[in-house]
């Protein structure tokens, strides 16, 4: 039996560049793992079946579950190694909100690939696992890598970034709302296709990707310039999700105003001589929607600031009982094998 923690991700940056010949979008993203994890337990079964247990009402327990599909993919691709090893029971203890823009399903698939590689002695390298993961979903390769990375292509090509400061994310999501990722991209295409790069314009595509590699967010992460990290948060999908989901837009405004007042009260308590930008670096750093939403996150420098912001946001939103608020530190790991 193996137990793994499958961490969620947030998007610090998400830019949509154009269409791809395969029907997906050409993206440049900066992804960051956060220590908010589903617990995946893999138990070998004697019979060659796949059983999936999860008591979250929005998570399918049939062949459409991404973790189930990860098992089926390994069995299909490695019939000689997996024939005769029996089946597996996958138990998912869901902590990552579902349909939230936090890659919950992808992280479960990543953990299942990682765990079965160990359990079934497949001897696959991380790059081989990532190539398989990309067949299941664009975010799976990043979930296997973890940490901080630039993701290009449809999100499956991962370039790790060595430095990201130890920050904290306040994650806020209404339980009653989830956003379909295909809907968000389709709606973006309907509204913004005229701004896309032409198909197969590889020179300009490479230039747009290079701009992010050498851009302000990567520099800010590398130098640990916290207020610049906050300033450079960006997500093209906000342009379609926030107008379609006014509650999410309102939640973002609440988090921004709580962050601003938190920063102001902290800099006041630390003396009037402190400059505005120092004041900002003591408070919340920035607020943005993650992926296709509807999770909105605020970054902070300390755990105490994150907890204070979560507390104040909870007091200010109308339907508190519907709002899931969690504080998650940045982490360098995507999947953690439990002892
Ligand atoms: P992403 O950020 O990768 O776009 P997401 O966080 O927005 O993903 P998920 O939590 O992965 O969304 O869920 C999207 C849908 O996928 C769910 O509504 C559910 O039907 C389906 N799904 C399949 N497998 C899983 C899984 N293991 N965990 C959660 N959802 C799953």
Question: What does the model show?
Answer:
Residues 65-147 form the GHMP kinase N-terminal domain. Pfam families: GHMP_kinases_C (PF08544), GHMP_kinases_N (PF00288). The structure is a single chain. The chain is of the alpha+beta class and 339 residues long. It has 2 domains: 2-161 and 333-337, Ribosomal Protein S5, domain 2; 168-213 and 237-329, GHMP kinase, C-terminal domain (Alpha-Beta Plaits), CATH 3.30.70.890. The chain is built from 13 helices and 12 strands. Strand 5 and strand 6 form a beta hairpin. Helix 8 (216-223) runs antiparallel to helix 9 (226-232) and helix 11 packs across helix 12 (276-282). The chain is globular, with a radius of gyration of 20 Å. Mean pLDDT is 93; it is low at 272-282. Bound molecules: adenosine-5'-triphosphate (ATP). The site of adenosine-5'-triphosphate has 22 residues, from helix 1 and helix 3.
Bound molecules: adenosine-5'-triphosphate
Unreliable stretches (pLDDT < 50, length at least 5) are 272-282
Indicate the CATH class of the largest domain: Alpha Beta
Coarse structural class: alpha+beta
Helical content class: 40-55%
Annotated CATH architecture of the largest domain? 2-Layer Sandwich
Rg, please?
20 Å
Mean pLDDT value: 93
Question: What is the β-strand count?
Answer: 12
Number of domains: 2
CATH-defined topology of the largest domain: Ribosomal Protein S5, domain 2
Order of helices and strands: EEEHHEHHHEEEHHHHEHHHEEHEE
Rough outline:
globular
Region (Disordered): 267-287
Catalytic activity: 4-CDP-2-C-methyl-D-erythritol + ATP = 4-CDP-2-C-methyl-D-erythritol 2-phosphate + ADP + H(+)
Keywords: ATP-binding, Isoprene biosynthesis, Kinase, Nucleotide-binding, Transferase
Domain GHMP kinase C-terminal: 282-316
């Amino acid at each position: 039996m193996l137990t793994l923690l499958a961490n969620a991700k947030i998007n610090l940056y998400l830019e949509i560049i154009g269409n791809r010949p395969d029907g997906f979008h050409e993206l440049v993203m900066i992804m960051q793992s956060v220590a908010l994890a589903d617990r995946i337990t893999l138990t070998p079964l004697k019979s060659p079946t796949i059983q999936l247990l999860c008591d979250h009402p929005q998570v399918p327990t049939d062949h459409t579950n991404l973790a189930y599909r990860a098992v089926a993919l390994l069995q299909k691709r490695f019939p000689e190694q997996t024939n005769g090893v029996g089946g597996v029971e996958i138990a998912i203890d869901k902590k990552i909100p579902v349909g939230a823009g936090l890659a919950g399903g992808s992280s479960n698939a990543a953990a299942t690939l990682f765990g079965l590689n160990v359990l079934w002695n497949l001897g696959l390298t991380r790059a081989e696992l990532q190539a398989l993961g990309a067949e299941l979903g664009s975010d799976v390769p990043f979930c296997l890598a973890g940490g901080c990375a630039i993701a290009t292509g449809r999100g499956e090509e991962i370039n790790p970034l060595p430095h990201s400061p130890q920050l904290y994310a306040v994650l806020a999501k209404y339980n009653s709302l989830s956003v379909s990722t295909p809907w968000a991209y389709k709606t973006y295409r309907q509204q913004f296709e005229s701004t896309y790069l032409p198909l197969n314009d590889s020179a300009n595509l490479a230039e747009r990707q290079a701009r992010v590699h050498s851009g302000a967010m990567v520099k800010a992460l590398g130098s640990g310039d916290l207020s610049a990290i906050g300033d450079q948060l960006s997500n093209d999908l906000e342009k379609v999700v926030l107008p379609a989901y006014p509650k999410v837009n309102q939640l973002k405004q609440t988090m921004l105003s709580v962050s601003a007042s938190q920063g102001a009260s902290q800099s006041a308590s630390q003396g009037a001589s402190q400059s505005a930008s120092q004041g900002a670096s003591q408070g919340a750093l920035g607020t943005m929607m993650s992926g296709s939403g509807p999770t909105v996150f605020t970054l902070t420098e300390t755990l105490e600031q994150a907890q204070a912001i979560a507390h104040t946001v909870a007091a200010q939103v109308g339907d508190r009982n519907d709002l899931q608020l969690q504080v998650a530190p940045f982490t360098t790991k995507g999947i953690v094998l439990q002892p």
